[in-house]
Amino acid sequence: MMKRIAILAVMFVSVVGMAQDKNKKTTFEVDGKCEMCKMRIEKAALGVTGVKYASWDIPTHQLSLVVDERKANSMQIKSAIAAVGHDTKELKATQEAYDAVHPCCKYREDNTDDSTTHKNDNP
Amino acid sequence: MKSFLIILCCLPFLASAQDTIQGMVMEANPDNKHLGLPGANVYWQGSPIGTMTKEDGTFSIPYSKEYNKLIISFVGFQTDTLTIDQPKMVHHWLQPSNELDEVVVKQKKEAVQKTFFLAQNVVTVNSAELLKAACCNLSESFETNPAIDVNFNDALTGTKRIEMLGLTSPYLLITQENIPMVRGASQAFGLTFTPGTWVESIQITKGAGSVVNGYESISGQINTELQKPLTDVPLFVNGYANLNGRLELNTHFNTKLTDEWSTGLYIHGNRRDSEVDNNNDGFLDNPLANQINVMNRWQYQNPEKGWVSFFNVRYLNDEKQVGESGFNPETDRFTTNAWGSEINTERFDGSVKLGYVFPNLPFQSFGFQASYSHHAQDSYFGFNTYDIDHESIYSNLLFNSIIGNTKHKFKTGISFAYDGYDELVNGTIFTRSDRSAGAFFEYSYTNLEKLSFTAGARFDTHNRLGNFFTPRLHVRYTPWENGSFRGSFGLGRRAANIFAENQRMFASSRTIQLNGNGGNIYGFDAEKAINYGVSFIQKFKWFDRPGDFSIDFYRTDFENQVVVDWENPREIVFSNLDGDSYANSLQVELNHRVLPNVEVRAAYKFYDVKTEYQTGLLQKPLQARHRFFTNVGYNTQPKENGAQWRFDYTFNLLGEQRLPSTGANPLEYQLGEFADGYSLMNAQVTKVFSNKFEVYLGGENLTNFRQYDAVLGADDPFGDYFDTTIVYAPIFGRMLYMGFRFKI
Questions:
Q1: From CA A116, how far away is CA B165, in angstroms rounded?
Q2: N or C: which end of chain B has fewer CB within 10 A?
């Protein structure tokens, strides 16, 4: 029984995957810590053709996306994010990319939420 | 459970060096069929290299000696790690898993959509700032903000007049939750009809505003957001009293009816019934007043479905009596027993707002709003009578979305407005109805870092202003961290309501001259002006505490204006502009937290506002060319229950002001060419006992500076030289007040 449900669920996921949603909403975790990270992550995500909306939340580290699946997949977005120095569960940024981020954004050394002390919210 | 084998097919590898790994990911099945799994993640552990399988389950990933753990994962399947030491073909079956290790969709909407890098020069005044000036209504909410200048309207009503970029409020678009509010009949007193406690926040836009809100704004926009039933406290009570006999009471009641519906009832009353004449000119320094103001709001919010809606009704009744002390309307009205005036206003407002955010597309929404208002003012000033009835309908439909991604956004929509005016000016009837419809489109771009701009245009058709096009442009550029340049350009037009906007002229012996040119608004053409400006802001840290420095320069050039000429003390002349009319404004501002709990704000402002009057190009009267402003705030560290002290001090220095010419009057009724500069101080102390209760005590005009000759010809109010319009300083002296706020 459990197996059948699991297979049905898998088939459903596959069908959804096959449907190639124009406005697919997804969320995954990206490492980072401050407003500057937020700007960099969102900019990198929006730089991938097919990404319509990107919003990274500082406390939860969740990146919410709306993606046109016909044009982009999540690994492309993750590699674009890794290229600007931010790690995801699957892809880790290279040392060079990580070294290039602003000193205040060194989340690998100190992964605290920095949103209140360091801001780049130009009015 | 049967055990599933992880089968790794090692195909014979090619002898030549290969730098990619090719393969296929399949769904495990009992027959080991090749069921390709599309969309699976394939990546090297600890690397920035990854890919996804194609529709048939195949993939190709670059190979590098640095990494040897290839991870294959997919939602609903167990993640597998393969050790790969050399390039080869990989065929891999993934096993289904009952556990989902990745949450795909999170249903949560942010309460506020964060705007990245706005191109407009917008200052937001939040509720903490509004508490610094405890009294009493919207016209007094700008005392601690240097972007807005607060001046005195006349010698009788105690009303404040606001200016931005050197131009008075008719040239500002004043909206309440984006519905035009202070316009037409309410231009003179409209700001006093919004009690301060109702205000949640104020957004001040300097320079040309967005096309979304219409074509009328010339020097800027002020938008007021009112308290929302869902977020305001369930019960709020505020009482206020000052030594000049003004009493105010504000109560808010808010209830959440269901998960979606909430409602709020907001009641305001104010009263002054003691006669005060501290300068002994025989005229009341402040009006005898009575206002009752009731608003009911309904809020519907359903974040899951994406709907937000507001329904609002408001009723206002405001009565003012001004003039000589001892004036009794019953016996003295329209007689020479005593000079007096009564201004009675009754107003009804109703509005509906409807917003929908597409639940899966946070960047796409539409909004609809419609409002109706009826404003009736009956008044007399000595023997002059002025009645106005203004009925207004405004509606607007707006759609927001993106082009490609959120770097390219647009807003588009249509709007409709109707205004019916019925005026009685000393027995002459002026009736007019204005109808307009328009369509707008606004595109905004941001590269999320250095550059953003907003370009908008609207096309309107108006029964008096004709068909016209209104462009607006805002640009922002950030050359370095925490610094930004802005520029704006815009065109604005409006129909001047000459009597309503200048009704203080009725409280004088001046004769009214309308030198029209046959235009279709009281015989005048519509006003038209171009506004452009630049600004720069730099945020900094000094002694590890934040601050910012800003400088801006704006210029408004009138192509046509209805010029109000006060230069002959016997008359007031209205005419179309013949020559130049412009306003230049410069503001330099510095804010810094000088000590951990002390904020200092200082600003210098320079205005060069000139208009071609009958007697030549002259500086605008009753306006200081130089102004200096400083505000110091000190708050003690709040305790756990919110208890703290708050201290606030504001200092204003005004340079000399040119007075309208009184040279044609006999010597005793002349005021000279200029009024000397002076300074004003306000201070307030608030003691917060807990999150529920606080008391405040304050004083305005602490140095007791007064203008003694504010009522010209006070000895003979029915004579030729009577004039209450030339006011450049406070009439009333030092004024102490206190109040409390209670909320649960």
A1: 34
A2: N
pLDDT at B18: 53
Choose the final residue of a domain: B94, B112, B131: B94
* ipTM over cut 0.85: no
Asked if residue B81 has pLDDT above 70, the reply is yes
Asked if B600 and B592 count as a contact pair (C-beta separation under 8 A), the reply is: yes
Q: Which residues of B touch A15 (CB under 8 A)?
A: none
Over residues A83-101, the mean pLDDT reads 88
User: Can you give the CATH number for the domain in which A77 is found?
Assistant: 3.30.70.100
pLDDT digits (tens, 9 = 90+) for B34-80: 788 888 888 888 788 888 888 888 888 888 777 888 888 887 788 88
Write down the pTM of the prediction: 0.83
What residue in B sits closest to A75 (Cα-Cα)? B51
Write down the H helix ranges in B298-411: 329-332
C-beta of residue B550 within 8 angstroms of C-beta of residue B589: yes
Residues 16..75 of A with a Cβ closer than 8 Å to B: which? Answer: 17-18, 23, 25-28, 39, 42-43, 46, 51-55, 62, 64, 66, 73-75
- Facing residue for A46 by CB, picked from B41, B98, B406: B406
Is there a domain that residue A87 lies in? yes
The per-residue pLDDT for B79 is 83
Say if the Cβ atoms of A6 and B97 lie within 8 Å. Answer: yes
Q: Which of B449, B478, B484 sits opposite A43 (nearest CB)?
A: B449
Concatenated DSSP letters of B323-341 = EBTT--HHHHTTSSSS-EE
Classify residue B439: in a domain, yes or no.
Answer: yes
- Interatomic CA distance for residues B145 and B477, integer angstroms: 25
| pLDDT at residue B440 in the model | 96
Query: Can you tell me the distance from the alpha carbon of B11 to that of B89, in angstroms, rounded to the nearest whole number?
Result: 6
Contact A92 B48 (CB under 8 A): yes
Residues of A in contact with B362 (CB under 8 A): 53, 55, 64, 66
- A43 occurs within a structural domain: yes
Q: What is the pLDDT of residues B605-643, one digit of tens each?
A: 999 999 999 999 999 999 999 999 999 999 999 998 889
Question: Are A6 and B117 a contacting pair at CB < 8 A?
Answer: no
Q: B425: domain CATH number? A: 2.40.170.20
CB contact under 8 A, B449 and A75: no
> In which band, very low, low, confident or very high, does the pLDDT at B3 lie, cut at 50, 70 and 90?
very low
Q: Establish if A93 belongs to a structural domain.
A: yes
Cβ-defined contact of B363 to A39 (cutoff 8 Å) = no
Q: How many structural domains is chain A composed of?
A: 1
What range defines the domain where residue A78 resides?
20-105
Using CB atoms, which residue from A7, A94, A122 is nearest to B48? A94
Contacts of B210 (CB under 8 A, 6+ apart): B120, B221, B442, B454, B456, B472
Q: Which tokens in the block code for residue B155?
A: 């010698």
